[in-house]
Amino acid sequence: MLRDITLGQYYQTESVIHRLDPRVKLVGTILYIISLFLFNNFTGYLAAACFLAIIIRLSHVPFRFMVKGMKAIVFLLLLTVVFNLFLTPGEALVQFWKLTITKEGVRISVFMAIRLTFLIIGSSVMTLTTTPNNLTDGMEKLLSPLKKIRVPVHEISMMMSIALRFIPILMEETDKIMKAQIARGADFESGNLVKKAKAMVPLLVPLFISAFRRANDLAMAMEARCYQGGEGRTKMKPLQYKKRDYAAYAVFCVYLLVLLVIRKIGVLP
Amino acid sequence: MSMILDHVSHVYEKDTEMAAYALKDVSLTIPDGQFIGLIGHTGSGKSTLVQHLNGLLKPTSGHIYYNGEDIHREDYNRKELRSKVGLVFQYPEHQLFEVDVFSDVCFGPKNLGLSQKEVELRAFDALRQVGFPEEYFYQSPFDLSGGQKRRVAIAGVLAMKPEMLILDEPTAGLDPKGRDEILGQIARLKKEMGITVILVSHSMEDIANYVDRIIVMNKGSVLFDDVPKEVFRHYKELEAVGLAAPQVTYIMQTLRERGMEVDTDVTTLEEAEREILKALDRR
Question: Is the pTM value of this prediction over 0.80?
Fold first, then answer.
């Protein structure tokens, strides 16, 4: 059941997108997300959808995996849609009891739904095609100018990569502890909220203890290999832009230009 | 009164490219009161198999019957099944959570909805059965040694009074002394209570001295299923799947090859000693 969460999971395969420099993918994803909020007509979304479709195609990751990640945010999505649908003032379309659906409401909620969906799929393309290590490497490099103002960039990215690395381990652990307690007659499903919360104790206590133990072991192992943080530390595979990375940046510029043009002309309503 | 597995298969990650058979067409009958060793290399499907026995995993195809009833029928009480078929996981001490040893052992019987008195009685009995010293009953389980923690964890399952006790690698991570103590304790338990015991292990050496029957798993299927000495006769095939017969078997085989008239079917050190002395006398 816990394996269903794909958000933030890497999908191993060979593709152009996988080989891109993580910095390109990070910047690209941020630009793409910004671009989703740049316009509010359907032609723009069509362009965004086409662009995303091409990227997905190039990444060789089955589309199923990205949809799987969506499951986690269905609730959030519905909430946004419902609120926008009922709480946007404007020309009434349908009215019953105290609730009014307005024309503007429908428009905004549809746009919001599309934006959120694209946002999640777009960022899962990034995480599915980049290993967590690569991702944090990219982040460290991108943020390195901040070192000048004494932001501990290396430490932050190290913490992030450790945290990411521990997600699957802790999930597996949760699964194991859960099964073991079920074997002792524990019940995680029935009962009211209080009872359910109480039922979590036999799961959470061993999980926390195990997390602390693992953290301790890891710290010891790092210490044993003389890890000492960012100052003067070199990389085995330093990030370096290649031709295809510049090409990817160019593609993004073209995409943004196209969108700006669409926004200017505003083809179709 | 027995457990029957009828053509059970289990596939992980069913609808993806990563689909893998953890169990392939396994059929077994486990009668009451047997002491069984379940052996296999890492990834042979032995852990998956035991999780089917108490209904934690559902077979992708095939059926499992306990005392004649299909355990995956809609109205079957699987919670009760889990108290009848007690499963102790690998590294069970990682699942301890209560403030003291005694309360932790109480967790299982309490979940069965028994009265407080009965719960405490069972916990007390269980702790005694595993040979846990009484003066530590109210200590925090986290302060105990590895071997003691493991005893507490086993007691936690025993306190539910199972008819069948399954132990997944009960000796993993213990030193040789702790290992022998735990195995001896389990054998004693088996003798005293007469319950069915399934011991999962990857080491023949560990279980050869204790069990009546050995089931060898390889790549999700049953490779051998017989009394220990019959299984050890196949020591060459066992090697091929990354297992080995006990060292005694090798010693006896070598002696035989060198022309000594010994019975190669012995499984324990004591038997081997007697056999060798007998052969020397004959000379």
Answer: no
Q: Give the three-class secondary structure for B69.
A: strand
In chain A, which residues have their Cβ closer than 8 Å to the Cβ of B79?
185, 187
- Please list every residue in chain A whose beta carbon sits closer than 8 Å to the beta carbon of residue B94: 177, 206, 209-210
pLDDT of residue A6: 46
Task: Using CB atoms, pick whichever of B51, B94, B112 lies closest to residue A206.
Answer: B94
In angstroms, what CA-CA distances link A245 with A20, B33, B219, B252? 6, 67, 44, 67
Mean pLDDT of B135-145: 90
- How confident is the model over A40-57, as pLDDT tens digits? 677 888 888 899 999 988
Smallest Cβ–Cβ distance between B79 and the set A3, A177, A185 belongs to A185
In DSSP notation, chain A reads -GGG--TT-------HHHHS-HHHHHHHHHHHHHHHTT--SHHHHHHHHHHHHHHHHHHT--HHHHHHHHGGGHHHHHHHHHHHHHH--SSEEEEETTEEEEHHHHHHHHHHHHHHHHHHHHHHHHHHHS-HHHHHHHHHHHHGGGGGGT--HHHHHHHHHHHHHHHHHHHHHHHHHHHHHHHTT--SSSS-HHHHHHHTHHHHHHHHHHHHHHHHHHHHHHHHTT---STT---SS-----HHHHHHHHHHHHHHHHHHHHHHH----
* ipTM score for this prediction: 0.86
CA distance A137 to A110: 37
pLDDT, tens only, B110-121: 999 899 999 999
DSSP tally for chain B: helices H, then strands E: 11, 10
CB B134 within 8 A of CB B144: no
Residue A3 pLDDT greater than 60, yes or no: no
**How far is the C-alpha of B29 from the C-alpha of B27, rounded, in Å?**
7
pLDDT (mean) for B234-253: 85
Q: For position B1, what pLDDT does the model report?
A: 64
